[in-house]
TrEMBL record:
Annotated ranges, domain Beta-galactosidase galactose-binding: 501-559
TM helices/strands, residue ranges: none
Location of the Glycoside hydrolase 35 catalytic domain: 10-324
Protein name: beta-galactosidase
PANTHER family recorded: BETA-GALACTOSIDASE RELATED
Gene Ontology MF terms in the entry: beta-galactosidase activity
Annotated source species: Paenibacillus phyllosphaerae
Source lineage: Bacteria, Bacillati, Bacillota, Bacilli, Bacillales
UniProt-listed GO biological process terms: carbohydrate metabolic process
Length: 583
């Protein structure tokens, strides 16, 4: 039973000195059929360890309902890594950040208006404890002390960037130990005074997260931990992308140079990310510094291994540095994944969202337009409907406060869109006989980092015309977890360029299965499903222009494609291409 130990400024494993060369691969962002491929490519690059977060919201999607299958089969992923000769670092913190929805916290926590997150709050900790009572017994047999591959476990994630509740950190530490986690425990934080003071514990290994200036960052870390091993738990060698922005890239030579300097300083390193993968479904997160910014579906991260698992120039540069420092590196570069241009898919059937609300939702009636969480909804869309008396001329319609993007209709006609990052009122005219007001709100991802972590979705305060609040609403939660009840009908070949949300459906027959990319020229904004699997969001405003479709999501024979277009399209066709577009 080998145990990772700290001896002075070094790590020992089985009594021998070891440098951990780790890369982050999140099992929940990669289809299980490709886990082995990605892990082998990590090992071939010269790494000896894989690191992964564990997202609470994936494993407990509803309180008391647990999932550990498919994308959520964390036990299989860890065991597989061990079988392939890799060590494992797991970060099962209740909060993970990770540009993941709500930082991995389950949305149902927000149904309790009084709950306080990430601190010694009894209501919050009772939920953490119930989750850990299920999760940790699955991890304990995989610990290195029990013959498994897990060498180290994180207590909390970048806590110093959020709070300074040392009792909370100690509570989590003690909870891990009490449940049988007897491997090395650690914290990880940015290398600043505030972060290291708030996020570390005196009796727990501290690690640091940064992307450049290693000499400067190590010097600051040494002010707090003069004798411990240097471990960069997150070497940010790329970056994530937001909608409406350009794709982030970083020069491979610069990444290799910084890595070389880290290793020369004697540090162990975890690449964040080695392979990013995909934010499938509605699981992308968001940031809120000066304004709200939602993360895109792709989590390519400009990592050494691309979103579809291909070697990049960065992979080659990193491999050369690791070889220089004595790592075991494969002689041959891994082969790229098989990709195919399947061509055009015609979407010949359609179903309007407004026309088929009863097939998608059970409505509720409320005095005020309550947010998703109060109605037991986690993700997707929500529709607020009321009747407004008339006449009203040139009044300002205020959505107070909308999270995140609302399409507004008067008597079924689109009058404008209100976006959280640009919350301007709409000018409304209501005829003497009154009118129906519909507001369709999209949850574009809960904030995953910083002080605005508590991020309810929908209309969070109220709706008013000028200064008059509107009451008496019919609300349709639209999580879109299943589209099976939608009554699709044959639709005209010409595109529907209206602003009414419409589902389109078509089929593709496949004989040879390969990876491909969904391209949507002429479409505006929406969501794509393939054989019932939510592939993610698209938006013409970029930077993402294609959605990665892993081959294992296809099947030989007929494959069903459904697209929810929110604003109208100039075509009823999509394209499956062999070339990704992210720029």
């Amino acid at each position: 039973m080998a145990n990772l130990e700290v001896q002075g400024s070094q790590f020992l494993l089985g009594g021998e000195t070891i440098r951990l060369l780790s890369g982050a691969i999140h099992y929940f962002r990669v289809v299980p059929e490709y886990w082995e491929d990605r892990l082998l490519k990590l090992k071939a690059c010269g790494f000896n360890t894989v690191e992964t977060y564990i997202p609470w919201n994936l494993h407990e999607p509803e309180e008391g309902e647990f999932r550990f299958d498919g994308l959520a089969d964390v036990e299989r992923f860890i065991a597989l890594a061990g079988e392939l000769g890799l060590h494992v670092i797991v970060r099962p913190s209740p909060y993970i950040c990770a540009e993941w929805e709500f930082g991995g916290l389950p949305a149902w926590l927000l149904r309790d208006a009084d709950i306080q997150l990430r601190c010694m709050n009894e209501a919050y900790l009772s939920k953490v404890d119930a989750y850990y009572d299920v999760l940790l017994p699955k991890l304990v047999p995989l610990l290195s002390t029990n013959g498994g591959p897990i060498l180290a476990v994180q207590i909390e994630n970048e806590y110093g960037s959020y709070g300074n509740d040392q009792d909370y950190l100690a509570y989590l530490r003690d909870g891990l130990i009490a449940r049988g986690v007897d491997v090395l425990l650690f914290t990880s934080d940015g290398p600043t005074d505030q972060m290291l003071q708030g996020g570390s514990l005196p009796d727990v290994l501290a690690t640091v997260n940064f992307g450049s200036r290693p000499e400067e960052e190590f010097a600051k870390f040494r002010e707090y931990r003069p004798d411990e091993p240097l471990f960069v738990m997150e070497y940010w060698n790329g970056w994530f992308d937001h909608w409406l922005k350009s794709h982030h890239t970083r020069d491979a030579g610069d990444v290799a140079d910084v890595l070389d300097r880290m290793l020369q300083a004697g540090a162990s390193v975890n690449f964040y990310m080695f392979h990013g993968g995909t934010n499938f479904g509605f699981y992308n997160g968001a940031n809120y510094q000066e304004k709200y910014e939602a993360t895109i579906t792709s989590y390519d991260y400009d990592a050494p291994l691309s979103e579809c698992g291909d070697v990049t120039a960065k992979y080659i540069a990193v491999r050369d540095v690791l070889r220089k420092h004595g790592a075991e590196v494969a002689e041959q570069l891994p082969e790229p994944s098989r990709k195919q241009h399947y061509g055009t898919v015609k979407l010949t059937e359609s179903a309007g969202l407004f026309a088929h609300l009863d097939a998608l939702s059970s409505p509720v009636r409320r005095r005020t337009p309550e947010p998703m969480e109060k109605l037991g909804q986690n993700y997707g869309f929500i529709l607020y409907r009321t009747h407004v008396t008339g006449p009203r001329n040139q009044q300002e319609l205020h959505l107070q406060d909308v999270h995140d993007r609302a399409q507004v209709y008067i008597d079924g006609q689109w009058i404008g869109t209100v976006e959280r990052w640009n919350p301007k009122p709409l000018i409304v005219n209501i005829p003497p006989e009154g009118a129906a007001l519909d507001i369709l709100v999209e949850n574009m991802g809960r904030v995953n980092y910083g002080p605005r972590l508590r991020d309810a979705k929908g209309i969070t305060e109220g709706v008013r015309l000028d200064n008059q609040f509107l009451f008496d609403w019919t609300i349709h939660p639209l999580p879109l977890t299943s589209l099976a009840e939608l009554p699709f009908q044959a639709s005209p070949e010409e595109a529907a360029e209206s602003e009414i949300p419409i589902f389109y459906k078509g089929e593709l027959t496949v004989d040879d299965i390969s990876d491909t990319f969904v391209k949507l020229p002429g479409w505006t904004k929406g969501v794509v499903w393939v054989n019932g699997f939510n592939l993610g969001r698209y938006w013409e405003r970029g930077p993402q222009q294609t959605l990665y479709l892993p081959g294992p999501l296809l099947r030989k024979g007929r494959n069903e494609f459904v697209v929810l277009e929110l604003h109208g399209t100039s075509t009823t066709e999509i394209e499956l291409t062999d070339v990704p577009a992210l720029g």
